[in-house]
């Protein structure tokens, strides 16, 4: 009878470390936001200034706000910011939800690594929502990217995705896929 070493049975190491957004991240986050916009639209730099400002999520005022929400995180890899989620709790009249404004990863990374970082940011967000008794998260998934199986039952509604947490997952509306 052979025994596997304990290390062989352990889960793989995370590809990044995830932590709450803070003021020390603002410069790197602004650079990441700009790089992501340039990836989405190579003509971004040629757009009118007002249009560029509207597409970016990283004004100083916005980042100060999101750093206080308890639902905004950065992914760190080799000491560098490599991913970001900016989210806030929003009262819907009968319940709170967490609404994601921005969810992105560094454009230069390999796609499988970007997928892992993206999923890690969502896991951090789901935990923060649950820990603050908010059981519904709304976000726009990255087009064409698969969602990790361990993220739970993410319901896609058109271009949007909704993740219910806790017992809300059992009583939520059926999937509209």
From TrEMBL:
Gene3D superfamilies: 3.40.630.30
Domain of life the protein comes from: Bacteria
InterPro entries hit by this protein: Acyl_CoA_acyltransferase, DUF1999
UniProt name for this protein: DUF1999 domain-containing protein
Pfam families: DUF1999
